[in-house]
Structure formats: C-alpha cells, structure tokens
Amino acid sequence: MKFNDREKVVSRDKLYKNQRKAKCMGVCAGLADFFDTDRHLVRILTIVSAIFFTTPTIILYVIAGIILPKRPDWSYL
C-alpha cells in the first residue's frame, strides 16, 4: 500500500451504513458488516426488538440512520 492510499482503507473500528445491501436505511446491513455477521440475523433481531421495545428501537434506528456516514463506494469489493 502506498502512503497516499491510507485514506482509502475502511476501518473496521468505524460503523458505516451499507447502502448497497440496505432494505430501509442501511443500518442493519452496516451493523452486520461491523460485527462480521449475517445481515438477515441482524434484521431479525431488530424486528424482534421492535416488537418488544417499539418506541426505543424505532427512535434509535432513525437516529442511527441519520447520524451514521455512508460507506464509501470504493470500499465495496
């Protein structure tokens, strides 16, 4: 890797929205990428959480969808 290419490394310590695998806002897909797990599992857990804790789950999901940065296009393989 060249010195100038350091900016083009996606850090595993940073959480991004994944717009390419998104169903709604890309938050669940981004969380799945961050924790290196299946995005369907994260979506199912989010739905179950929304059933039992409706208001907090929806509020946190919308806030995360607004605050999280989009994953850069060059980082997709």
| Shape call | globular
Q: Low-confidence stretches at least 5 residues in length (pLDDT < 50)?
A: none
When the domains are counted, the total is 1
Gyration radius (Cα, Å) is: 14 Å
Residues in helix, %? 40-55%
| Terminal Cα span | 17 Å
Supply the number of helical segments. 3
> What does the largest sheet look like?
none
Strand portion = under 5%
Order of helices and strands: HHH
Q: Averaged pLDDT, please?
A: 85
Q: Please provide the count of β strands.
A: 0
* Structural class based on helices, strands and sheet pairing: mainly alpha
3D architecture notes:
By secondary structure, the chain is an all-alpha fold. It has one domain. The chain contains three helices and no strands. Helix 1 packs across helix 2 (39-52). It is globular, with a radius of gyration of 14 Å.
Using brief descriptors, characterize the structure shown.
single chain, 77 residues, mainly alpha, 3 helices
Topology diagram in text:
Elements: H1 27-35, H2 39-52, H3 54-67
Helix pairs in contact: 1-2, 2-3
